[in-house]
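Standup notes
- DV: blocked on the single-chain target, sequence here:
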Amino acid sequence: MRPPTRAIVSHNATIDIAVPAHILYEMVSDISRMGEWSPEATGGHWAEGATGAVGDWFTGSNQTSERSWERECQVAAANPSRDFTFVTGGLEKSWTWWSYEFDPTSETSTTVTERWWIINKSPAMEAASPEQFAARAAYTLQMIEATLAALKERAEADA
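- DV (later): unblocked, structure below
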């Protein structure tokens, strides 16, 4: 899923991984595993009855050296082997969006693009100074690149 033109800020990065798209989709859409490759997200758990379908909710957990927090997230796209996208605060609040796109380049290789964008600032983002907001956005690009590199390492090691 691509960010709309009204996004306040957005970043993306792409990496080639020598693993089939369906396996990478299964890894990323298993939100409990996110901490295996993300420098900040530590995992999450699905709301009761959720299966990872569009509209389902989960609680994502995050941690930095300064603090830890949780965010309620809603699945916005769940197209196996193609796209897994979720948004913090849910579709109605439309705060921070995270999207993973899978483009098979062969039967055994996939180009993965991770996208991040903000439509509306969360209360924490609203409280940040312009400098703090800009620093957070810049740091997020570094996290995306680190996440993709770690996903590649883990997926290829497991393959």
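- Follow-up: The chain has four helices and seven strands.
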